[in-house]
């Protein structure tokens, strides 16, 4: 195995529990929307199936399509409301930003331990998120200075990169780090994210099961699934601090990343 030299982290649900706030914001948006129109009720399963990991407006459009609703796309300047896809997306953004302010953001302790371990081992690290709130979340969580590269929804829009499940944002982060995709780890909790990692032919797609299900993550492209990144250490890179060689073989003759909980 070629040594893995970079770790590309999704943000919401991987580094920070902001995915929970996003889930609640989507529920506050779509539960009354569906009720008022006699549509099938919005559930958490809708979040995982139609919204999780996607750019905000794509999530709106995909969910609406699941209910047979088609709205004009509109533009990102639309006022928060219900007349266009973008208006609904902007309304959701206002809801979640209120939650960020009232409840705050703290990173997962296990994710910070894993981040510490891979950076201490010499890996390059980046954040790759569909969210345009990424700078605010990184600053609020105290992680803003931990990453060499951030490719978020703002960068994707500026550079015209398609969002997940397309691999382009992850490939762009690897390019900015100067690391081939085959030598990088993608860390994701969303089905669209693990699909992006698989489509980009990355060295390892690491799934974090925050509720979508380990089997579903594997089926969509994760090569390894854990419930918390604290279960892992730097051996996931195929090396460790005790002299593992660049083939990924440790002192027991096993591949370090295969020993983690799958």
The CATH level-2 architecture of the largest domain is identified as 3-Layer(aba) Sandwich
- How many β-strand runs? 6
Question: Class by helix and strand content?
Answer: alpha/beta
- Amino-to-carboxy terminus distance: 18 Å
Succession of helices and strands: EHHHHHEHEHHEHEHE
The rounded Rg comes to 19 Å
Concise overview:
By secondary structure, the chain is of the alpha/beta class.
What can you see in these coordinates?
The chain is α/β, with parallel strands linked by helices and 262 residues long. It has two domains: 6-17 and 105-259, HAD superfamily/HAD-like (Rossmann fold); 19-103, DNA polymerase, domain 1, CATH 1.10.150. It has ten helices and six strands. Strands 3-2-1-4-5-6 form a six-stranded parallel beta sheet.
Topology of helices and strands:
Elements: E1 6-9, H1 18-37, H2 44-51, H3 56-66, H4 85-103, H5 109-120, E2 124-128, H6 134-141, E3 149-151, H7 153-159, H8 168-177, E4 184-188, H9 191-199, E5 204-208, H10 214-219, E6 224-226
Parallel strand pairs: 1-2, 1-4, 2-3, 4-5, 5-6
Features:
2 domains; 262 residues; 10 helices; disordered C terminus; 6-stranded parallel sheet; B-phosphoglucomutase_hydrolase; Rossmann fold; DNA polymerase, domain 1; alpha/beta
């Amino acid at each position: 195995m070629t040594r893995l030299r970079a770790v590309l982290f999704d943000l919401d649900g991987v580094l920070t529990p902001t995915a929970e706030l996003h889930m609640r914001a989507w529920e506050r948006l779509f539960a009354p929307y569906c009720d008022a129109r006699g549509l099938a009720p919005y559930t958490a399963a809708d979040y995982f199936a139609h919204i999780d990991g996607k750019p905000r407006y794509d999530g709106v459009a995909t969910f609406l399509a699941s209910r047979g609703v088609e709205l004009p796309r509109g533009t990102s300047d639309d006022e928060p409301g219900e007349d266009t896809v973008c208006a609904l997306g902007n309304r959701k953004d206002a809801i979640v930003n209120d939650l960020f302010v009232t409840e705050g953001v703290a990173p997962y302790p296990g994710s910070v331990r894993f981040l510490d371990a891979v950076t201490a081992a010499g890996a390059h690290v980046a954040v790759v998120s569909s969210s345009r709130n990424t700078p605010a979340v990184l600053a609020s969580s105290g992680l803003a200075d931990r990453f060499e590269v951030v490719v978020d929804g703002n960068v994707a829009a500026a550079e015209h990169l398609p969002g997940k499940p397309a691999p382009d944002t992850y490939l762009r982060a690897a390019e900015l780090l100067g690391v081939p995709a085959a030598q990088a780890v993608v860390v994701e909790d969303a089905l669209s994210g693990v699909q992006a990692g698989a489509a980009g032919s990355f060295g390892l797609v690491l799934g974090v099961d925050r509720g979508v299900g380990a089997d579903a993550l594997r089926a969509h492209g994760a090569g390894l699934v854990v419930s918390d990144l604290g279960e892992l250490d730097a051996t996931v890179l195929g090396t460790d601090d005790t002299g593992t060689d660049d083939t990924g073989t440790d002192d027991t003759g096993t591949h370090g990343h295969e020993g983690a909980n799958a």
